Every structure is written in C-alpha cells, then in structure tokens.
Amino acid sequence: MHLYNAWLPPAVAAETRRETESFAAVVRSVKETWRQDDPDSVFATLKWIAVIEVFVKAKSEVSPEDVRELLVFGLDLFHSSQNKLHVQVMMRMIILKFMILKGNAIQYVLV
C-alpha cells in the first residue's frame, strides 16, 4: 500500500489493493483498441489517457510487468502514429510520466 493510502479506513484501504488488477485491465483495453491494420484506430486509444493518468496521479501500486507492457505498447503506438501529432504527444506524455514515477521504468522496456 502506498503511504498516501495509510490514513484510509481499513475497508477502503483493502479495496486499494485491487488497483493492480484494474491497471492490468486498462492496459489490456488500450492494446485492444488499436488495430495495426487501421491507421486511424490510434485515435481510439486516446480515451484511455485520462484513465491511465488517474493511476499515475494516485501513485497506485501497479505491476512492473504491466508498466513494461504499457511502455512498450506506447512506444510502438508512438512510432506507428506517423502524421498524427496529437496521438504522439499524448503517448509521449504517458511514457514520460511513468518514467518519472518509476525512476527506473526504462529498465522495463530494455529487459
């Protein structure tokens, strides 16, 4: 549990443990919205940016494997989004936020 959640009542604090599962579901959903055969489907991934930012701002405990999966996907999407600057900017923002939040996040991508 994150230090910020230590003040929560026990029942609410117990629910925060499900954040890992929720984040994994969000990562799966983001990946499912993008179809490589449809170049415009990259725009469909934008609706998940706000949801991912909630996990970042809440300093949620998330699995390193899910972070890696999101970072690798984000980089793939970034490179595939030629001439779609808005998508590239939003993905870059998420990638950078996770790299700042998880100081060693780059190791997830390189491993």
Automatic annotation (TrEMBL):
One of its GO terms (cellular component) is cytosol. GO terms for molecular function: peptidase activator activity; proteasome binding. GO terms for biological process: proteasomal ubiquitin-independent protein catabolic process. InterPro entries: PSME4. This is Uncharacterized protein. PANTHER family: PROTEASOME ACTIVATOR COMPLEX SUBUNIT 4.
